[in-house]
Amino acid sequence: MQQGKVITRPAELHKETLHPSSGTKRRVPRFRQREAILAYLFVSPFILAFLLFQLGPDIYSFVLSFYHYKGYGTATPVGFSNYLAVLQYHVFWQELGNTIFYWLAHALPLIPLSFLLAMLVRSKFIKGQSFWKPVIFLPQVIATVASALVFQALFSTEYGIVNQLLHTKIHWLQDYALARWAIIFLLIWRGLGFWFVVFLAGLSSIDPSLEEAAIVDGATLWQRIRYVIVPLMSNVFLFAFVIDAIGSLRLFAEANVLVSGAGQADPSVAPMLNLLVGNLQNGEFGQSAAIGWILFVLTILVAALQFSSFRASRNK
C-alpha cells in the first residue's frame, strides 16, 4: 500500500501541474489582459493622431488626385488627367531639375564633412569631446524659421556679416543664382549636426580590433580610413544620401523664409513644394494632390535606385 502511494504521488503532482486550479487559471489571463489594455491606452493617442492627421488626409488626397476640384462646388472625376497634366507641364520638370541640383550641391559637401568631423571628434587629436558634441549638434536644435532668419541677417545686403567681410555689397538674397547658394549654405549648416551624430554612432559600432590589426600591419591613417572604416560605414553613407534626397524633395520652409523676407520673387528657390502651393493658390486641388503623390513615387524610386546600386557595388 505504501508503495502504491509513493508511485501515485508523481502522477498526482503531474496532474496538478497540467490542470492547475481554477483560481490560478483566472489570475494569469486577467493580468495579461490588464497589461494589454494599458499598452493600448498608451499607444492610442499616437494611433488616433496617425489616423486623423496622416492616414486620413493621405487617403483623401489620393482620391482627390483623380478629381477636378476647385475647393467649392462638386468634384468632377477626371481619371488620370491630373497626373498627365502635371507630367506634361514643363515647369514640373524644370523644378525637378532644380531639386536635384539642391540635393547634390548640399549633400556632396555635407556628408563627407559630417563624417570627417565625427572622425576628428572620435580621434585622440582633439580634446573635450563632451564640449564639441553638443556644439556641433546645436544647429539641429534651433527651429527652422529661426535658422533661416539668422542666415537672412548674415546675407543681408546692407548689414550682413558676409558682405562686411568681403567689403562689398552683393545682393545675395535678391539675385536668384546667389540665393540658391545661400540656401545651400543654410542646409549644410542645419544638417551638419544631425549627420555628425549619425556618423559618430556608426563609428562607435566598429570593432576597435580591426583598426588595431591595420595599425600592426603598418597601415597609415588614410589607408585605415579608406580600406577599413569607409567600407564598414557604407550603409551609413547610403542612408545619408537617401534621406538627404528625400529632404530635398520636401524643401520649402528654409528657402521660403530665407528669400521671401528679402524680396525674392522667383519661386524656384523652393522648387517642388512651391509648385504644389502655387497650384493650391490657383484652386487646382486635384493637380496639387497629384503632385504630392508623384513626389511620393519619386521618393520611393530614388531610394530603390540607390539601394540597388549599393547592392550591385557590394556584389562586385
Task: Give the secondary structure arrangement, pairings included.
Elements: H1 2-18, H2 22-64, E1 67-68, E2 76-77, H3 81-87, H4 90-122, H5 129-141, H6 144-154, H7 161-166, H8 176-204, H9 208-216, H10 221-232, H11 234-249, H12 253-260, H13 271-281, H14 285-315
Antiparallel strand pairs: 1-2
Helix pairs in contact: 3-14, 4-8, 4-11, 5-8, 6-12, 8-12, 11-14, 13-14
Major sheet details: 2 strands, antiparallel
CATH topology of the largest domain: MetI-like fold
CATH class of the largest domain: Mainly Alpha
Strand arrangement across the biggest beta sheet: 1-2
Cα radius of gyration in angstroms: 29 Å
Number of domains: 2
Compressed to H and E, one letter per element, the order equals: HHEEHHHHHHHHHHHH
Principal-axis shape: globular
Mean pLDDT: 82
Instruction: Report the total helices.
Output: 14
Strand content: under 5%
End-to-end CA span: 78 Å
Portion in helices? over 70%
Give me the count of strands: 2
Determine the CATH superfamily of the largest domain: MetI-like
At CATH's second level, what is the architecture of the largest domain? Answer: Orthogonal Bundle
- Class of secondary structure makeup: mainly alpha
Parts with pLDDT < 50 across at least 5 consecutive residues: 1-8, 10-18, 21-25
